[in-house]
Amino acid sequence: MAVGWTLLLALAVTGAVAVGRRLHRYPGGMEFAFGGEHSAARHDLDTARNALRALERAAQRELSGAQAAARKAERIHRRRVSSAEADLAYLREPGRGSYLTEIQHLSLYQHILVADVPDEWPGDLPLDRIAIRCDHTPTASHIYLTGPDGRQYLLTYPVFELGEEYVRKFVLDVRNAIPAARTFQQDRPRLIRESEAELRRVLSDTTGRSEAGLPLDALAAGQAGDPRIPGARQDLDAARARWHALTGHRPR
After folding, report:
1. Helix, strand, or coil here: 103?
2. What is the pLDDT along the chain (252 residues), one digit of tens a residue?
3. Rounded distance between C-alpha atoms, residue 196 and residue 188, angstroms
4. What confidence tens digit (pLDDT) does each residue in 121-157 have?
5. At what angle do helices 164-204 and 39-92 cross, to 10 degrees?
6. Domains with residue ranges and CATH for the chain
7. What are phi and psi of 130, to 5 degrees?
């Protein structure tokens, strides 16, 4: 029984809300909001409302699409600028570069050999200015490094700590990385100039943004000069005036 009363109450509330909305939409009383003799007047008001709403929604969709295209063009331009700036920053300060491989005490990067050994070792050794070799005995492997200042360094790896094949492979990796590092350093001045020129070109290239902005500007100008929406507003004002003359109440 309680469920039945609850359902009836819910239906009553729903009906009251619907009636209230209709009275708000067609002000003037129940007769004008529901009466069959005034259906033509309601239709007249609805037609004017719907015509204006359709035009405004279509205009907003067009404008939103053009704005989205302009924002996308701006994002693309910012990404291109950021990429060019990152490329130039890397060339100016390449740092160690990408990590390649390591063995105990030595880590190989794209531009640097990092020595994590006692204090007399220099730490970061630029690959383009070093030399490396190794030799082996039955009990140990030896790595000989020549630094940029000509000083030589020795690292010894007992075979029970690190097998000869690992030392040979690491030294080979370093020796293969050295020519690439030298080429990079030789080319850096030219690459920096080219990267600076590319950044200037990207910064000054507003073609994409301009092309995306043209439809937006044209659309905004076209919508401002389009007589349909002002005309539809006038038609709605006229329909409201007719309803007001009929009922004494002006609808929104």
Report:
1. strand
2. 554 555 554 444 454 556 668 777 777 778 877 777 888 888 888 888 888 888 888 888 888 887 888 888 888 889 999 999 999 999 999 999 999 999 999 999 999 999 887 666 778 899 999 999 999 999 999 999 998 988 888 999 999 999 999 999 999 999 999 999 999 999 999 999 999 999 999 888 877 655 555 566 676 766 767 788 888 888 888 888 887 888 888 888
3. 12
4. 778 899 999 999 999 999 999 999 998 988 888 999 9
5. 130
6. 99-185 (2.30.29.30)
7. -130, 170
Q: pTM for the full model? A: 0.64
Question: 198: which residues sit within 8 A by CB, 6+ positions away?
Answer: 84, 87, 88
Q: Are 91 and 113 in contact (CB under 8 A)?
A: no
Burial of 140 (0-12, 13-18, 19+ CB in 10 A): middle
Q: Which of 46, 53, 41 is nearest to 244 (CA)?
A: 41
CA distance 80 to 200: 11
Who contacts 128 (Cβ-Cβ below 8 Å, separation ≥6)?
Answer: 111, 178, 181, 182, 184, 185
pLDDT digits (tens, 9 = 90+) for 50-71: 888 888 888 888 888 878 888 8
Number of C-beta neighbours around residue 22 at 10 A: 14
Per-residue tokens: 132? 């490396």
Q: Is residue 113 classed exposed, middle or buried when 0-12, 13-18 and 19+ CB atoms within 10 A define those classes? A: buried
**Six token digits for residue 71:** 């924002």
